[in-house]
Amino acid sequence: MGLLDQKIAQGGIVITRIEDLINWARLSSMWPMGFGTACCAIEFMSAQSTPYDLDRLGIIPRASPRQSDVMIVAGTVTFKMGDRVRRLYEQMAEPRYVISMGSCSNCGGPYWEHGYHVVKGVDRIIPVDVYVPGCPPRPEALIGGLIKLQEKIRGESIVVPKAIQKIMEGEG
Amino acid sequence: MTFEDIKALVTDQLGDDCILVTDTAASPQAFYIEPLRLSDTMQFLHENDQLYFDSLSCISALDNGVESGTMELAYNLYSIPFDHHLMVKVTLDRKAPKISSLTSIWRTADWHEREAFDLMGITFEGHPYLRRILMPADWEGHPLRKDYEEQTYYRGVKVKY
To answer: Cβ(B53)–Cβ(B64) under 8 Å?
Structure first.
């Protein structure tokens, strides 16, 4: 979007599409839920620290799922934890997004074969938007994943996609 | 006090037949006792003035496999005032592993026994509330047994990769 303040200073009016405005607002304030399930959470915390400064992307962790837009599943999801993860996801208001961070939550990671207690991918429990590979991923990788999610949000539409609209009209 | 001294104290009090086998290669040095005599022996080790094993450091459960048909429990004891170390072991029947609980002697046995029950399926008689400690309450089977096969689904989620 660039430096808005300069444009406002020139004429006081910014012309844009409502869709772009909503998407811009959403992707500029992706508040993640401040929780972690294993060692990936350390890298998640590190990404919030001064050297990486997630705040510059408008990413501020929230203590409640009710206030969160993004769930970053940072770490191993055990079957016991799986129910809690699902419950937290259900408590989030829409639109909501999920980033699966690290090999464990992507596919089970090192527990894929003998980890009887580990869910082999958090996408068996909740829908995932972006997968960040690594064991654990460095903060740069997580930031890469968050930027990827921003790209996804930027392409979203508030109206029903044309193809689906046609199907729905056909039914009506 | 040496391992031999501890052994002598135990046999003096509880009889020569109390200790079945000794394993001096173990660390700490160990002896096997009859499972039925566990409570008496442990009570003595806990109370004796010269031993005073006031700390139950760990309970380890071993599955020797289907062929051998046995399981083992290893109790690691430590005496804080005297700095004595001792391991007491028992051999159990693998088909119905059962032993008396030591929660009345050491409170710390509570969670250790729950862990052995959860992962190995050993029943501790007299335990105040024997239930799973690590796995979910509705999990099937005891995962650290040699012949363990995980369930196909847990609450609708596939377990295998």
So the answer is: no
Of the candidates B25, B107, B134, B124, which has an alpha carbon nearest to the alpha carbon of residue B73? B124
Tell me which of A117, A118, A122 to substitute to probe the interface with B (most B C-beta atoms closer than 10 Å): A117
Name the helix (H) or strand (E) containing A89: helix A79-91
Name, in order, each residue with C-beta under 8 angstroms of A18's C-beta and a sequence gap of 6 or more. A158
Half-sphere exposure of B100 (CA within 13 A, CB side): 14
Count Cβ neighbours within 10 Å for each residue of B102-113 and write b for 16 or more, e otherwise: bbebbeebbebb
> Which residues of A fall within a CB distance of 8 Å from B134?
117
ipTM topping 0.85 = no
Q: Which residue of B has its CA nearest to A121?
A: B161
Name chain A contacts of B154, Cβ cutoff 8 Å.
Answer: 79
Fold annotation for B3-158: Beta Polymerase; domain 2 (3.30.460)
Query: What is the per-residue pLDDT across A54-66, written as a single tens digit (0 to 9) for each?
Result: 999 999 999 999 9
Report the DSSP pairing between strands A97-101 and B157-158.
Answer: unpaired
Query: Of A82, A107, A113, which is closest to B157 when you measure between CB atoms?
Result: A82
CA-based torsion, B75, B115, B140, B160: positive or negative: negative
pLDDT in tens, A4-21: 677 676 677 778 899 999
